[in-house]
Amino acid sequence: MRPIITHFTDDDLYKFTMCCAVIQNYPRTQVKYHFTDRDNTVYPDGFAEALRLQIRMLEDLVITDEEIDFMKRRCPYIPSWFYSFLKGYRYDSRCVKIDQDKSGRLHIEFEGSWSNTIFLEVKVLAIVSELYYMMTGEADSLDYDHYYTVSRRKAERLVDAGCEFSDFGTRRRASFAAQDTAVRAMSRYQAENPGPGRFAGTSNVYLAMKYDLTPIGTMAHELICAIAGMYGPLMANYIAMKTWANTYRGALGTFLYDTYRWRIFSLNFSEDYANMFKGLRVDSGDNFRQLDLIAEKYRSLNIDPRSKQVVFSNALDVDSAIAVNRYAADRCKPSFGIGTHFTNDFPGIIPRNIVIKLTDVKITESWPFYSQTCKLSEDSGKYAGDPATVKRFLETLRITE
User: Fold this and answer.
1) What is the predicted pLDDT for the residue at 318?
2) How far is the C-alpha of 15 from the C-alpha of 204, rounded, in Å?
3) What is the pLDDT at residue 381?
4) Amino acid 80: pLDDT
5) For residues 273 and 290, what is the distance between their CA atoms, to the nearest angstrom?
6) pLDDT value for 148
7) d(Cα 219, Cα 138) in Å, to the nearest integer?
8) Do 108 and 356 contact (CB within 8 A), yes or no?
9) Residue 85: which of 27, 139, 41 has the closest Cα?
């Protein structure tokens, strides 16, 4: 079987930026991650063994000098010591447990040092997604020439509508070729047709290098979830903001606020951090309602919300992004991170509804037990974690459903 992942930086930028923050601030922290298939998919016979083989193949990946040179040029906020770590980094398949039960359902768990396991999430999700289509035979129906045309048309509509947008589609792409095709089409359209909108780049570092684009990304929910597991959810957002500011000194200043819902974040979002961070990312809830809450909060701190960036990344397609852009145009500086709609939008293909979330954490390897954590967000359907832990966090945060 050919390896699905063939480049070290075929990964989202936020995994690199978070790993750097983890090493600097939580170098001994241990974690567990769990895979969830929200559609309860029955995977083909032999899927688990094929996945194990793909993950063992990751052990052969080594970051290249070309990749490091690109990141140094395009990501100046990352300290130089981090590249020494990346040069020595090797994937360890022993951190991964995979099982497929008698009904065909898939179970995946990672466990180990946070800095060593953090790079598994995006790559394993991308592998699961592409491997599924390979083993079901659906990959044979993917028409990439047509996909190029469709992707170019998406870029045209977004640029003409004045949207600033990026590709966020690595995790649930139909294939590497699908994401490559979409990014190639959009970057070429942008180069040939500068307009009121702009294709800003991609979260995928390798594809950003291939097409000389800006890698896009900051952080994920796992940073706040891990902190909540160690120190509790009430001040997890505040500690995460402090951690991020300590690492990047004002760079990468878009904060993902919805891990424990808007209310608790708003209480943590003090004037100093509201001024320091250039904006917020909306990843759940109603986009229009969330923007209203954000604008109201900024105004309460005597900050003009029109001076702040708001990144929308909540299950967007072209139509919804254009609608939000119209609403947001005189309320903030809107931009859009679009994932599955860019990289898994083939006729007859159902995108995988899969996630891998950090669920357990302990401060150091000598700690005698793990503490459970979870993600809540603005949509109950996006809750992730053990049901008892979710219930405990909801009670702690005084959230009533």
Assistant:
1) 98
2) 10
3) 80
4) 97
5) 19
6) 98
7) 33
8) yes
9) 27
From CA 270, how far away is CA 93, in angstroms rounded?
Answer: 42
Pick from 36, 83, 41: nearest CA to 63: 83
User: How many angstroms separate the Cα of 36 from the Cα of each of 39, 42, 144, 317, 346?
Assistant: 9, 13, 29, 23, 23
* Half-sphere exposure of residue 240: CA atoms within 13 angstroms, side-chain side: 31
Instruction: Output the DSSP codes for 248-271.
Output: HTTSS-EEE-GGGHHHHHHHH--H
Q: What is the DSSP string of 318-369?
A: HHHHHHHHHHHTTTSEEEEEE-HHHHS--TTPPPP-EEEEEEEEESSTT-SS
Q: Which residues of the chain have pLDDT under 50?
A: none
Q: How far apart are CA 397 and CA 298, in angstroms?
A: 22
3-state SS class at 183:
helix
CB 159 within 8 A of CB 200: no
Residue range 274-324, pLDDT digits in tens: 999 999 999 999 999 999 999 999 999 999 999 999 999 999 999 999 999
**Residue 200 parent element (H or E):** strand 198-202
Q: At what angle do helices 318-328 and 287-300 cross, to 10 degrees?
A: 30
